[in-house]
Design goal:
mainly alpha, 0% strand, elongated
């Protein structure tokens, strides 16, 4: 007798469809990943730091310098703190998602580099064996310098054997 927990953990059978009250949102992970990379790339720029500095300065300046009836976030700036915390709580996971995607790309690039390097090593070893084989074969073949030296030796021997008139 199997329990429902054992049935759920079996990999050879499809899962039962679970009905939920609210439908699950569907999204394209690749598009979401690209968007998160664009946001993370922007968050890491000097332009973002300048924009945030201007935003915080204007916010604090407005809430310190304008009449009290126009202020929406008085001195402890609790609303500003809440906004910055919310921005940070979204920025951190987006940056992590972008880093994970970059790690995946780096891993693929590393594997491609490794296989290319393995092929290059195999090609180099093959060429080394071929050159060694050619050297062995060339040691049995007469070279141009060898032939010249032999011909010059024969000419000297013939000159030495010539009768003097």
């Amino acid at each position: 007798m199997t329990t429902t927990r054992q049935m759920a953990s079996r990999l050879d059978q499809p899962r039962e469809l679970r009905r939920t009250l609210l439908p699950r949102p569907h999204y394209d992970p690749e598009s979401f990943g690209r968007l998160s990379e664009r946001i993370a790339r922007f968050l890491g720029t000097a332009r973002f730091l300048v924009y945030m500095t201007v935003f915080v300065t204007v916010w604090i300046g407005w809430n310190l310098l304008v009449p009290s009836w126009l202020r929406w976030d008085p001195y402890p700036f609790i609303f500003l703190t809440l906004i910055l915390s919310l921005q940070a709580s979204y920025a951190a996971p987006l940056i992590l998602l972008a880093q994970n995607r970059q790690d995946d790309r780096d891993r693929v690039q590393y594997e491609q580099d490794r296989s290319r390097n393995d092929r290059s090593i195999a090609d180099t070893e093959y060429l080394t064996r071929e050159i060694a084989g050619l050297r062995v074969a060339m040691s049995e073949v007469a070279t141009r310098d060898f032939l010249r030296s032999e011909l010059q030796q024969m000419i000297r021997e013939m000159d030495a054997k010539k009768p003097v008139p």
